[in-house]
Design brief:
The chain has 3 helices and 7 strands. It is an alpha+beta fold. The protein has one domain: START domain (Alpha-D-Glucose-1,6-Bisphosphate, Chain A, domain 4). The chain has a 7-stranded antiparallel sheet with strand order 1-7-6-5-4-3-2. Strand 4 and strand 5 form a beta hairpin.
Length: about 160
């Protein structure tokens, strides 16, 4: 039996903050556990091939509203300063994540696209009946990130 454990999510955030300030926080994932509830650990395994971090590999451990954790590796595949970060995930999740940032009229808009396949056996088996629950859970974790980033931007020295 072929089980479809592929998911596509698009998350949109807006911040009344400079684009460079939002970029700095998103481009520093090792600090995410300080402000993003749900991010338990981000470990830099390989710093990459240049100062932008192309090829960098990080190990992420996430927890969610539901009682489970996910651990996966993410390799940075594309970096356009202040506007885009892309990575390829492997391990318990497999797929592509893309951060897009733009700024106009005093507002920084962020979009995160996550196209991913769940590789955990129990998640694969539950996918046909739990798809909407996994989507709900993803949305909650992303909302934790949005709220945490709002707090982080307000507390940073350059304001927000």
């Amino acid at each position: 039996m072929l089980i479809n454990s592929h998911y596509e999510f698009a998350t949109k955030w807006e911040f009344a903050a400079p684009q460079a300030q939002v970029w700095q926080q998103l481009n520093s994932p090792e600090s995410w556990p300080l402000w993003w509830r749900g991010v338990e650990q981000v470990e830099l395994l390989n710093k990459g091939t240049d100062e932008l971090g192309h090829g960098a590999v990080r190990k992420y451990t996430w927890r969610s509203r539901l009682p489970y954790r996910l651990t996966f590796l993410m390799q940075t595949t594309r970096v356009e300063p202040f506007s885009r970060i892309e990575g390829q995930a492997t391990d318990e999740l497999e797929g592509c994540g893309r951060w897009h940032l733009c700024h106009s009229e005093g507002v920084t808009r962020v979009r995160y696209d996550w196209q991913v396949k769940a590789n955990k056996r129990w998640m694969k088996w539950l996918a046909p009946v739990a798809r909407s629950i996994f989507a709900w859970n993803h949305d909650i974790v992303m909302e934790w990130g949005r709220l945490g980033l709002i707090r982080r931007l307000k507390s940073s020295p350059s304001g927000g």
